[in-house]
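We append the chain.
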Amino acid sequence: MRKGSLSLSINAIVVLILAVVLMAFALPFISKMFKSTTTQFEELAGEEPAALVANGANPVTLSRNNLIMSLGDQKALRASVFNSGTTIETSSFTILCIDDVISKSKESVPDIDGGKAKEVILIIDAVALGTDICTFTNLGNSISIPVEVR
């Protein structure tokens, strides 16, 4: 065996060991990050009642008819979204408020089969004082509710 090929083999082994060590440190960190996000969703959403199941007549429903928050608060809002199409669609909410009193910080993003409804959990942040009418839009359908941030 030539000296060059032995050196290459040792380098490959060193790189492999370094990769395994990095993975050993990275996996618990990534796991912890996902677990904290899941825990936050569960804690906030646990207090929130379920939204009425969406259908063709009401393609987007929310768990509340209005939203009252304190500045700096976070609340979960449950929604039900109906996919009126025939293909699988990925849920993604946009929130439009005239005075931008709230914003969406996180959202569960499920795939919704055609002709079916699925629950989505939104984590909402109160970012400015005021009263506003906010429109929640998903898959081309909207629902508006009054929002007050005190």
